[in-house]
Description:
Layout: E1 12-14, H1 16-23, H2 28-43, E2 49-50, E3 61-65, E4 70-76, E5 82-89
Parallel strand pairs: 1-5
Antiparallel strand pairs: 2-3, 3-4, 4-5
Amino acid sequence: MAPQHGPRRARITFSDSAAKQLENLTSEAEIHALDRALVVVSVDPEVGAPIPGDTAGPQLREYTDEVERVRLLYWVTALKTVVVVAYLEV
């Protein structure tokens, strides 16, 4: 019997500004908090709440993890790639 695999996770990529934020992460706790939030969003890209705004561009979403005190701003492409725009500590 072939092994069963779970649903495919979304691919995560970072905008230039988010990539610069990542360069400034220094502690294991910060990295762990971000990793946890990225896993949640990669499993279910629609988990974040839509941010009201202009409908001409991509729909920005916001995911907040109150336990790890992390907030991600991101949008999801048509191919379900998650583009992280910003990583913020709450």
